[in-house]
Amino acid sequence: MYFDYQEQQRQGATWSPTVDVCERSEEIVIFVEMPGVDRTDIQLNWNEGVLVISGLKRQRPSSQGVATYLCVERAYGHFRREISVNIPIDHTKAQAELKDGLLKIHLPKRGEPEITTIPIR
Questions:
Q1: For the residues of 43-96, what is the DSSP string, one character each?
Q2: What number does CATH give the domain 2-58+74-108?
Q3: Which of 5, 22, 76, 100 would staple 59 via disulfide (CB 3.0–4.6 Å)?
Q4: pTM for this one?
């Protein structure tokens, strides 16, 4: 696995969600913390062995009317993570779910590649 943090900066990301990656016998599962991010603001793309997670975390207006913030520690804005997966993945069967601020991405492993014998003449 390879995580490209510098790519985030090149793509204008202003913050980065934290990620856990686990390998199971049939799949790779990626957990991404996304509190306060709407599913419609998240994009997942697979490009030649690289999972790209990008989107936007919007700052919500105060529901109590006009407010002056005294401290802002939560991050907002665009984000982008690239995770290179060096295990054969069947990306056509990949699935993702967002629940309680946690995005779970399931990347099923492809079956073992066939070993083909090449005759020598």
A1: EEEEETTEEEEEEEEPPPPPTTSS---S---S--EEEEEEEE--S-B-GGG-EE
A2: 2.60.40.790
A3: 76
A4: 0.78
